[in-house]
Design goal:
By secondary structure, the protein is mainly alpha-helical. It has 19 helices and no strands. It has helices spanning 2-8, 10-30, 33-53, 55-70, 74-102, 107-135, 139-163, 170-194, 201-236, 238-276, 279-306, 308-311, 320-344, 346-351, 359-379, 381-406, 413-431, 442-464, 469-491. The mean pLDDT is 88.
Length: 492
Amino acid sequence: MILRQMLGYIPVNLANIIISFGTIAILTRLLDGAEFGRYALAIAGMHFIHMVVFTWIEAAMVRFYASAARRGEIASHLKTSYITATVMGIIGLPILLALIYVMPLGQTMKTLLGFAFASTCLSLIYNIGIEAHKAAHRIGRYSAIYTTQSLLGFSVGIILILVTPLREVAPFIGIVAGTVLALIVDIPFMIKRMTGGKFEKSRARAYFAYGMPICLSLMLSYTLSQGDLVFIKYFMGDLSVGEYNAGYNLANRSLDVLFVWIAMAVTPIAITTLEQDGLEKTKEILKSYGEFLLLIILPAATGIALVAEPAGFILGESVRAQAVSIMPWIAFAGVMNGFITYYAQRAFMLSRKTGTLAATMVLPVLINVGLNIWLIPIHGLMGAVWATLVAYGVGLVLSLVIARRSFPIPLPIKALMQCIFASLVMAGIVNALPASMDAWPDLAELLLKAGVGAVTYAIVAFAINAANCRKIVTGFLDKIKGRAQTSTSEAV
């Protein structure tokens, strides 16, 4: 079931891959290191504000969709969510612009943040529809709209950098352009589904009570993952921000695309199953989900660590050397971050006990802030890396312990051990490749090491049945064989 859903989201994740790596590869070349550093800070500020102020209504759209469908209240669910989001966006924008005006920032940064905050207010309304499509399992429509909006926004931003003097402001104008087009296409479709529904204050209050703790948790999580940039900016300057962000994103976004892809497919299934089939069936799905995450993510992180040096060709020269040096460490920090966000925190969402969600992140954030202040002045960018690793380690343990008090989320320990073993064998084989390969072109070295590593991991994982992968492979092959037989019989 998980694999089938993932196949439906292939266009979305191809778009995410293009944008994630395109942003790093292109922007680090078109913008100088300082400009890219300011862009990174503006992106971080945009996401932070969105999480703190707006995410609660998006989270409620996903979590309450299945129960509203079961009770025949979809129209009211949608209308309440859309009206709430629209009002928040309209009221929020002038408040955010006023906040920017009074902040002690340079004019360039104020302009950047102005466009960034305008785009996030507009994106809120777009996100309500996107989350509704995902919750309703309208995978085709979700993929088409999301992919178009993402690629159009990215393309417009790059074109504007090339033909205008907008520089680091251009990507945010691109986001606005893509979002406006998506809304023009999607709003009429959603209005039809709101027919007969009504805005209900009690429903909005329930959504706020559920979603606001998620906002607080996301705020803390994002502070944990991106707060380093503020301290690097303070202690080391814009160029160092660009270097750190480039390396962080190249390593972490590679994993994040996988986490999002798998979670995107599983989360609606888990919610619908809990509402319709009960706890035991949901636990089975979550167990398979956790095992599948380990099967895919651990070798991916190991691979990033192994090929960090040749993968550096993706980055612009102004940020490359320092970025490459932190990538292996950030890859494993990204594993911990992903399991906090996309596995442990699912327990709070499913149980609706989001009140304790934020509490799991307070200690890791405090540890991260304290270690950044202590280590960055001494060790530079590596100080920020070590602070991140320690904070994520504490956060993962704390999240799993507290999460299991809210919902019996499985701990796939056996699968973890199997996948670690297969990843270690892969690392040994790749490291045993001839040292003369270092003289090869970076792309050739990257492709060969990645290919050898992937084949080695696949063989070992299948041999020891890591994370029950044989069942996944044989099930997939049986479906292909069944479809081929069906096609043959229909042709006859």
